[in-house]
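Bench log. Compound arrived from synthesis this morning; before running ITC I wanted a structural hypothesis for how 2-phosphoglycolic acid sits in the protein. Inputs:
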Amino acid sequence: MAEVVIVDSGEAAGRLVADHIAEQVHLNPEMVLGVATGSTPLSVYRELARRRSQGVDFGRAWAFALDEYVGLPEGHPQSYRAVIDREVTVPLGLDPSHVNVPDGGDEGIESTGERYEAALHARGGVDLQLLGIGTTGHIGFNEPGSSFGSLTRVKTLTEQTRADNARFFDSPDEVPIHCVTQGLGTILRARHLVLLAFGEGKAAAVAAAVEGPVTASLPGSAIQLHEHVTVVIDEAAASRLEHADYYRWARDHKPSWQGI
Ligand code: PGA
């Protein structure tokens, strides 16, 4: 099962996860980090940037993003390529040629998923995958009904996700309808999944993903099939978990050598 770590704030989550990533990069400077967009992982990136200023070197690490919108003009500030450059590549000092984001350009869109899978495979897969979770229960952009075996492919966003993401655009109509996303099968191949969620708005999706039945109707529940998952959430996002007391107890009694 997943380890659930309930923290006081997004900042505390950022410190915890950044500590672990910094340790991993030290052990393996060429580690492959799976990066997510959205508001949730920002505290991790901020904290990693701080580690960089303290001497942690990400210059040989690799990054693979989970997803991208289809059809945004190249260089659009809300394209995930641009977001990853701004929030991750530049602040962490990654080599831009080591940073991969699915290609959401219209040309060659039919085979974009296969090309991304090939690039992932060539790098040996993702060592640590950061994940947010949508209010629909999506991870990556795998909306309800996504197959647990799915690989990177073009998907249609739900109207709920488009509304949730409208805050990043000038108008809700500008949010693309299609995306390219790693599949649930792709995500499950990563060696360690770290799912983050903060705030009351995520409580239902978190409870369903961690404690609900494993079902394609709640794609985040796929994490229950993975052997190494860490769920890092604040009190509000944890508020609907039935076994929260046990997760706190287990965390308090965790052998110190285990890490996350
Ligand atoms: P958020 O998005 O981090 O902006 O809440 C999470 C997601 O949609 O996966």
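What the model suggests: The longest strand covers residues 192-197. Residues 196 and 255 are 22 Å apart (CA to CA).
ITC booked for Thursday regardless.
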